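Re: your question from the hallway

Yes, I did run it. Sequences:
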Amino acid sequence: MSTATQEPKTKSPGMWGALRQIPADIWSSVFRNPLPSNDLERSSTSFTNFFLHIHPVKVHKNTLRPIYTLGLGLMSLFLFLILVVTGILLMFYYVPSTTQAYDRMLDLRGTVAFGIFLRNMHRWSAHGMVAMVFLHMCRVFLTGAYKKPREFNWVIGVVLLLVTLFLSFTGYLLPWDQLAFWAITVGTAIAGYAPFVGKQMQFVLLGDTTVGQEALLRFYVLHVAVLPVVLVLLIAIHFWRIRKDGGLSRPEAAPGPLVKVRMELQKKVYGLQGFVRGPFTKIGNVPDESVYSWPNLLMAELLVLVLTVSAILVVSLLFNAPLEQPVNVMHPPNPAKAPWYFLGLQEMVSYSAFWGGIGVPTIFVLLLLAAPYIDRSPKGVGKWFARERLLANTIFLTLAVVNVIFIIIGTFFRGPNWTFVSPF
Amino acid sequence: MAEASKAPDKKEDVSRRRIFSWLASVGLFGSAALAAVSDWLFFKPQVTYGPSARFAIGKPDEFPPGTRISRDVERVCIVREGNRLAAISTTCTHLGCIVGISDTGFSCPCHGSRYDQDGTVTGGPAPKPLPWFKVTLAPNGELEVDKNTQVNPGTYFTV
Amino acid sequence: MRLALAIASFVVLIVHGVVFYNQFFHRWEQHQTAYFEQARSLSKNDAERAELEARSPRVEQTIVTSFGDTHVDRCTTCHMAADDPRFAGHAEPLKAHPYSAAMGDVQRNGRWERRHKFSDFGCTVCHGGQGRGLENVYSHGEDEFWPEPMLGYVTQATWRKDFTPHLKGKEYMEANCAQCHTAEDFAGTPHVNRGRKLFYAMNCYGCHKIDGMSEGTLGPDLTEVGHKFKIDYLWESIVEPRANLATSFMPKFNLNDADVESLVIFLKSRRGVNFAETTLDRYKAHIANVAVVIPPGTAGEKAGEQLIADRACTACHKLRDKDGGIAPDLSYEGLIRDNAWMMDHFKNPRSRVPDSIMPTFRFPEEDFTRISSYLQTLKAPPPPAATAAAAYKELCERCHGEKGDGNGKVAWYIDPSPRDFTKAGFMNSKPRDRFVASIQNGVGGTSMPPWKNVLKDEQINGVLTYVLTTFTKEPQREVKPHKVPQQNPVASNKESIARGEGIFLERCTGCHGRKADGKGPNSLDILPHPRNLRNSWFVDTVPDNRLFDSILYGVQGTAMPSWIDYGLTQENVGDLVNFIRSINPKTARSQYARN
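Structure:
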C-alpha cells in the first residue's frame, strides 16, 4: 500500500484521484475482466479465470437442458465439495483411537460449536453422494452417453462409483459406535469371500484379524487422505475428458441450414484455437446451437449448487446422524447390518457367500466396465430411453432395479437372525 | 444482467432479474459471512483437556503456618505465613522452566535465575518477578487458585 | 431460474441463521446465569459479588482419571451449585448435593466434608448418565443408545413399560457403589450383597461365569454384564429368559420382585474389572464361595426337601406340582434311581447320562447326601391310572409328547432325544420284547428311567399297547429275525480294533462324528440324532447281536442305513463292534464324563 501511495505523485490526475483508483486497480489485477457485457468479454471471462476456465467458452444448448442431465453429476461434485469442507473441519476434533473416537463424537454433540450440525452434513452428504453417483450412472447409461468417443470416460465413471462407495464405507467406521463396528465387521467379512486373495485382503484392510485399533487407523488414513486424493484425480480426468470428448453427449444434430455466425468482433478468433475436438466449437461453418458459458452455464451450475447445499442443510437441521452405543465387541446387534448401499450384497450373501458377495458383484462391475465396448452401435446417443437401445436399457434397468430391490429388502425387510420381517 | 442486451425492450423483466440476482447474492454472501463467523466459533475450543487454570488445592487446614509447598502439576507454590496464604507461580519468567524451592526463595535449574521468597528477582537472566495468583475460598470450604487472575506480590488471602 | 436461485439462497441463509441462533441459546447457559444471580444475592462481600458479576457462562467439567479410562463429567455445567452448601434448599438443577453420613461425609467444626470429592470422583461414576452430554436427553442418559442412564432417576424411552415402576428409586445406585465397595458385607450395598448370595443360592453360578466367582459355561458370561446391558434388559432376562433370545433355555426361576431386584442390582455392579477389586480379592471371594456356597444357617439344618426348594432344583426339574419344564420329573425318583446313581449324578451329571446339560453344582457333600436321601423317600407310586392313556399322560408325555412324536415339553433339552413313536418304520421293525424291556429297565446312559417299580407289568403292557395303537397306528407285523451272530465272532485284539477304527473313520464319522460322540457334521440334520457311541452306560446294555443287526441291516425309521448293502461283511462289522467296545472300557466308568 505504501508504495502505491508514492506512485501517483509522478502522474497527472492528482493524488486523490489515484488513491481512488487503487481499489479498482487491485480488483482488476485479481479479476482481469469487468462483469461482461458483450460476447468478447463473456468469452474472456470464462477463459481468464482459473476457476471458470474448466468450462468451454461456449456450450451446446443441449447441455443446459435440465431434463437431459438432471444435474446429477454436478450434484455429486458439489456433495463431494461439501464433504471435503465439512470433513476437514471435523478432522480438527477427531482422534482415530478406539478409546477416544466415540468420546469425540459425544463432544461434537455437546461442546463443539456446530459440531453436530457439521457431522450431520457430512453424513447426509455422504449418503447423498453415493445415491447421486449411482443415479448419474443410470442417467448416462439410459441416454446412451457412454458411446464412442466417451467410452473411457464411462470406465472412469464406474471406477469413481467404486471409489465413492469405498470412501463412504471407510468413513462408516470412524464414529466407533455399534452401528459402525458391526457394519464394518460384516462389510469386510464380505470382502473375505473373494477367492484366493479374499482373506489376505481382509487382513491387510483391517491390519488385524478383527476390527480394532489398527482397522480404525487404516480406515481413517484411507478416508481422509488416500481415497480423496484418488477421487480428486479421477474427477479431474473425468471432467477433462468431458471437454476432450466433445462436451456432453447430445443427439446427432439434424442437418440444418448452414448458418454463418457473425461474431460481434471478427478481428480475431480469440482463444478458440481448436482446443476442443468436438465439431461445434469450430466457428463459422456449423449451425450454431451453442450459447455462452457465462452466464448461462454458470448460472445453472450455481443454481444446482445452491439447491444441493440447501437440501443438505435442511436435512441436516431436521435429522441427526445416528450415533449408537459405544462399541461392544462381545455383543453384536441382531441383525448386524452393513451400510445400506452394501445391504444388497449382504442380502445376496445370505443366499450364497461366494456368489452373493463376490461373484455377482464382480460380474456386475465387469459388465459395467465393458458396457461401452460391448454395445458398439452408435445409435441412440443423447436421448432418454432411445428406441434403438431398448435391449441395453432393459438389461441395465433390470439389473439396477434388482439391486435396488435387494437393498430395500436388506434394509427394511430383514429382522433378527436375518429372517424376513415386515416393516409395517 | 448479461442478457440485458438481448432484451432491451423488456425493462420490467430486467429489473425483476436484477432484484432476484441481488436477493440471491444477499442470501449467499450472508450465509458465507455467517459461516465464516461460525467457523471461528467452531475452531475456538469450548473445553480443554489440559490442566485447568482454576483449581481447588484443599482446605486451609492442610497448609499449616510456615508451609511452602510446590505443586508441580499446577506449577504454583502455596505459601502460608501465620493465617495468610498465597499462591506464587513456579514458572520461571525467563524461559518457562519450573523453578525449585531453595532456602532463600526460588532458583531456576535451567539458566540460574534466582528469586527471593516473594518471587522478586535477585539474580540471573529472569526479566520479571514471579507472578502471584489469586486465592479464594470456594463455597465448599476449599481453597481455589485462579491462574487467570494475577494479584500484586504481597497480596495475601487471610484465612 | 433466478427466482429459484433467490429462494434457494434464502433457504440456505435461513438454515444458517437457525443453526447460528441455536448455538447461542443453550439451556445450560440459562442455568449458569441463574446460578450467578442467586449466588450474588447470597454472597456476603462485595469482592465476591463483583467476581460473580464478571463470570460468564462456560462449560464446566471434571476430568477423572482415577478409574481406568478418563471420564469427563460436565454435569456441573448445569448443576453448578452441586458443591455449594448455600443452595441446599434450592430446586434442581441448582441444588446442592446433600451430605450424608452413610456415604462417609463427616462434619467437622460445624462444616460438612465430603468423603467422595467431586473433583476426584466426578459424578457419573456413582450416578450413571453421560458425563459429556450437555442436553438432558443425552446427559441423563434418556437417549436409548446410552447404556447407562442415571440410575434411580431416569428410565429410557425404549424401556419396557411394565418394568419401569420397578426400576426407579435410588437403591439402584448401589450397583455403582459396588463397583468399588466389593466387600461382601459392605453396609451401603444391601441389595448387592443379597444379590450376590442369590447368585450362588439360586444356582446362577452353575451356568454363568463371572470372572473369579464362578465358571459356568452353559449360559452367557456375566463378567461384564453390568457394563454391557441396561438395567431393564437384565430384569427382563431374569423374569422372561426368552424375551431377548428365543432359543434361550434358561429356566424361569419365578423369583419374587424383591429377589429379582437384588439380582439385577448385583449384576449391574459387575463390570469386568471392578475398580477397587484386585485379582487377589477376587481369588479370596472365589475360595470363600467354593467353601461356603449356601447362605449361613441353611446347611445341616434343613432337610433335603427344603434344600431342593432352596437350591432351585425345580427351576428345571419337576417335583409334584412344581415344574421347571427343562429336566426330568423327580416325583418317583425313589422308585427309579438308587442312591449310588444319584450321588454320581450330583457330583457329575454327565457320569451317568453322558450328554446331560445339567451343570455341576458345588454343593457340600452333606447337601448331596441330604437331597439324595430325601429323593430316596419318594417311593410312593402314582395312584393306579384308570386307563393306559392316563398313565401315558402322567409318566411319559413330558418327554415323548402329547402326540407321541418324541417332542414333549422337555424333549429339547434331553440328549439322546426321546423316541418318536409315530415313526412306524422303527416301531414295527423291533420286537415287542425290546420295548417292554426298555420300559421296565430304562435305557442306560439316557434319561429313560426304569419303570418297573412304578408300573406293574400289565400296566407296562397296557401303555405299550396304547402307544403302538394310538401313535404308531400301523399294526405290528411279525418281525423277521435277521441272520446275525449272537456273539461277536471276531476276537477282540489290537489288529481287529485298528481295522474297526479304520472302517469307522471311513464310513461312520459323517454322522457319529470323529470322536464317535454322535456329533458328526450331519448329526444336526438327522432325527433321531445319531447315537453317542462313547455313552458307555448305553453301549454296555446293547448286546452284540443288536449291534450287528443295527449295522448290517440298518435301523428303520432312522438315518442308519443297512451297511450290508454298502459292502460291509460280518467280519468288518465284527471289527467295528470290537472298536466300539474298545472305546467303552468296563473300568473306572462312573467317575468321569467322556465327552
